[in-house]
Design a protein that fits this description.
Keywords: Isomerase. Pfam families: TIM. One of its GO terms (molecular function) is triose-phosphate isomerase activity. One of its GO terms (cellular component) is cytosol. This is Triosephosphate isomerase. By secondary structure, this protein is α/β, with parallel strands linked by helices. It has one domain: TIM Barrel. It is about 40% helix and about 15% strand. An 8-stranded parallel β-barrel has the order 1-2-3-4-5-6-7-8, surrounded by 4 helices. Strand 3, helix 3 and strand 4 form a beta-alpha-beta unit. Helix 9 packs parallel to helix 10. The chain is globular, with a radius of gyration of 17 Å. About 40% of the residues are buried.
Amino acid sequence: MASQIRYFIGNWKMFGIPSSIKILDKINHYFKQDKKNNRKYKVIIAPPHTLLQDFSYKYKKKKIFICAQNCYYKDNFGAYTGSISPFMIKKTGVSYIIIGHSENRARGENDKIIKEKILLCLKNNFNVIFCIGENKNEKKEKMTTKVLKRQLKSAIEKKYNLRKIVIAYEPVWSIGTGRVPSSYELRKNIITIKKFVKKHFKTRHEPKILYGGSVDKKSVYNFKSIKELDGFLIGGASKSSKDFIDIIKNFYK
């Protein structure tokens, strides 16, 4: 049986200029030195679109992967001012892309658009980081399971290559708040997602499930015992090489 590979994905959001590549250089230096554990995890960094090509070029033959934060849901060239298609992003050398992040959902990105984006990304041979999660009111009304299943069913089809999709569970009420679910609650939701994906989409593939939401070295340490957890989607802490490295260190401590 193959050993479990964990993902540490840094989402920089609207942060970063060309000189920010120094952050990646420090992370890459640590990765190369971490000979005890560096075969157990994968580092992926999602800078703004303006940095994708430069970062991808520099890290083309290294072990840090570059990821896009979003894309448009049309793949042809056309009158879509300010938009970037999956095809255009692919030409930067990037192989990963985040779709369905809660901050984009809050700006009007609905399930239909997310489905179209995922389909286009798979057609362009991307590895998709697909974000799902309940908001504060949905959690309060005990609708978490219903919401997660709806988001999964509405965006993924049985014909899709599920090996190209990594699911990031990011409860909206946790993002940027410092609040995180208990280990029991997180494990319960991860197991729910894994069981639903395997049953509904009739696959033997074991889906990869990440956690995102106020991820820091403390929360990672608390969640390290959850064997069903395949890694983390990291926001604010990924903008600091020290904080990002501390997260990896604490997980393997």
